[in-house]
Amino acid sequence: MWYLLHEASQVAFSPARMIADLTKLACTHSLNPVTYTPGGRALVASCELFERTTRAYPKPTFNLPASERVVWQQPFCRVIAFGPPSNKPKVLIVAPMSGHYATLLRGTVAAFLDSHRVFITDWSDAKHVPLSEGQFDLSDYVDYCRAMFEALGPDLHVMAVCQPAVPVLAAIALMEAE
């Protein structure tokens, strides 16, 4: 439901964003006397704020000094490995899937690169996954975590950042119970 509202708001605000851009352009033109007034500057700031808060941001890159390769992939997630295989301790960073990109954790990945083989989850935007792949709920989330842990092998350290803490703990508990 929330995703539908988000998508609807992106479409609905598109004309308003264009109007805000045109207003900003007009109010910052050097020949417009409004440009030099406090009201004009406030209007420009309001237009910039509106545009930035309603913009659909593209997915940024990690832009780290290490190679990236996909080592595990399913419809709703993939695991990216950084750097060449090594004997360093392995750490999987399980990023939130709550509408943010794993690249927001680039600083965390960078901090681990010198001392660990780093892996990170890169969750797919559900709107890009075909309905034929089925739904994705909490038990699927836990199953994905278990599959990732098994694919990355023994002696794996796992760091869940915020939201995935519960599914990660559930996956570990289920694996321990077996």
TrEMBL record:
InterPro entries reported in the protein's UniProt record: AB_hydrolase_fold, PHA/PHB_synthase
SUPFAM superfamilies: alpha/beta-Hydrolases
Name of this protein: Polyhydroxyalkanoate depolymerase
